[in-house]
Specification:
Layout: H1 3-18, H2 33-45, H3 62-76, H4 81-92, H5 107-133
Helix pairs in contact: 2-3
């Protein structure tokens, strides 16, 4: 390899390795480990309102950064996790929570999978019972019509 090619490879390697921190989303470090754990948990529970499929901890969008700062300010002011969640829901609506709360509005959301499972089990049991009722030699339900000999 020529010296110039080696220099270009070294330069490219430094550039690639050096760009990693630029893409880091949340680099907030808090001195108190308990507060840091609460901050991390809360930022993973709240949805980015712009991305909608990422938590504010994972989203690189500016709005998510603002929400992360707001969560940190609320936690540092002494608010509990529930108070922070309630504040965010009050301000942005229940959609901001990745796990919706159970109340009368979301009861269908939580109960629908169980209802679908019960309906599926009921249908499966009916099908199995009907098939079990037919004996191997029993053809009374089947009418072939006149037979040609």
């Amino acid at each position: 390899m020529t010296v110039m090619l080696r220099l270009w490879l070294v330069f490219f390697g430094i550039a690639v390795l050096g760009i990693g921190p630029v893409w880091a989303v949340d680099t907030t470090e808090i001195a108190d480990p308990a507060l840091q754990a609460r901050y991390r948990a809360l930022t993973h529970e709240l949805r980015c309102m712009q991305c909608q499929n990422q938590s504010i901890a994972d989203s690189p969008v500016g709005l998510a950064g603002d929400l992360r700062r707001q969560v940190l300010e609320l936690l540092e002011s002494g608010k509990s996790d529930a108070e922070v969640r309630d504040y965010m829901v009050e301000r942005y609506g229940a959609f901001i929570l990745f796990r919706p709360q159970f109340n009368w509005r979301t009861a269908w959301l939580w109960s629908l999978p169980f209802v679908a499972l019960l309906i599926g089990l009921w249908v499966a049991v009916r099908i199995v019972r009907r098939r079990a009722a037919l004996l191997p030699g029993d053809t009374s339900e089947v009418d072939d019509g006149p037979r040609l000999s």
